[in-house]
Amino acid sequence: MKPWETMSQFVAIRSPWLTLFGERLKDDRDRLLDYWRVEKADSAVIIPLHRDRFVLPKLSYRPGIGEFTLDFPGGRVPSDTAAIEVVPDILQRELGVTRDQIDRLETLNSQGWLVNSSFSNQKLFGFVVEIRADVDLDDRHLWETSYAAEDSQDCDRLLEALTCLQCRAVLLELLRQRSRDR
Fold this sequence. Notes:
This protein is 20% helix and 37% strand. The chain is elongated, with a radius of gyration of 19 Å. 22% of the residues are buried. By secondary structure, it is an alpha+beta fold. The chain has two domains: 5-39; 44-181, Nucleoside Triphosphate Pyrophosphohydrolase (Alpha-Beta Complex).
């Protein structure tokens, strides 16, 4: 198959959050197509475990949908940074957990998953963090409910509560890897 060719770029709108491009492409059958795409920083989503329970931060306001949602801690990965490097800062910001309170950090997908490959370059990296059992978490940072990590019904309840596809994907990957390792 012949690769597509960028013939021209007719729009580039840059912001700190994303860059939007309008481009004219020639496809593998020599048709000219106007195409829109977004370049965004990669994302990291972290599943925090504390005393064998999934813990989540308080609800976050999501401007895209105009609602508060339940999500795992997460954030953007600057282009010059390895995804794993942002994990401690995200946990500090969203849960009040410091680096020294992290017992174990595991990468779920080292290559990153493409979030929407037809529209964006963004990748999603998933991590699991075990917070030391001797640490008492600050309730001011936490969602009112935690979920037992080894209870399939609690895992199902958590999946139902999560509306963010990225959060659900990372949780499902963790559950898949756990079932494979048993």
